[in-house]
């Protein structure tokens, strides 16, 4: 599942960049990755969202399932409180390329017309920005 996610991120990055992938800043790449992870929540793909978290070690399947249930509860709470998540927009990012960490800023839009800016901590692992 993680391999599919990595491939999706790489394809997304290449498609968005055209032939000049080197012209995209690390800040922009981190911002795009964070948006992609939260769009998984928007589309009900809680498994893909959970698999986007960096874990240096494997986790038991039962714990992964608990995390997926927690993500589904989070989506359900957004539906209850704000009529659901309806949009995810990037609002910038700030990365430290020496430490391979960063923060992306997303603007989440909800069904009740409210918006919330969230800070998404990220870590660069094997060339991919992952949730921290």
- Which sequence of strands runs across the widest sheet? 1-2-3-4
Sequence stretches where pLDDT stays below 50 over 5 or more residues: none
Number of domains in the coordinates? 1
CATH architecture annotation = Roll
Strand-residue proportion: 25-35%
Number of helices: 4
CATH names the topology as Nuclear Transport Factor 2, Chain: A
Average the pLDDT over all residues and give the rounded result. Answer: 89
Fraction of helical residues = 40-55%
Q: N-to-C terminal Cα separation, in Å?
A: 18 Å
What is the structural class?
A: alpha+beta
State the total count of DSSP E strands. 4
SSE order: HHHHEEEE
Q: How large is the radius of gyration?
A: 15 Å
Give the overall shape, derived from the CA principal axes.
flat
Taking the sheet with the most strands, its summary is:
4 strands, antiparallel
| Text of the CATH class | Alpha Beta
């Amino acid at each position: 599942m993680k391999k599919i996610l990595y491939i999706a991120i790489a394809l997304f990055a290449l498609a968005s960049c055209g032939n000049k992938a080197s012209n995209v800043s690390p800040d922009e790449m981190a911002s795009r990755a964070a948006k992609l992870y939260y769009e998984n929540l928007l589309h009900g793909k809680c498994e893909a969202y959970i698999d986007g978290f960096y874990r240096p070690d494997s986790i038991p399947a039962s714990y992964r399932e608990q995390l997926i249930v927690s993500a589904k509860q989070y989506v359900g709470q957004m539906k209850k409180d704000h009529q659901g998540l309806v949009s995810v927009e990037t609002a910038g990012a700030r990365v430290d390329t020496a430490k391979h960490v960063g923060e992306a800023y997303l603007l989440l839009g909800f069904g009740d017309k409210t918006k919330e800016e969230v800070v998404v901590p990220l870590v660069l692992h094997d060339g991919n920005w992952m949730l921290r």
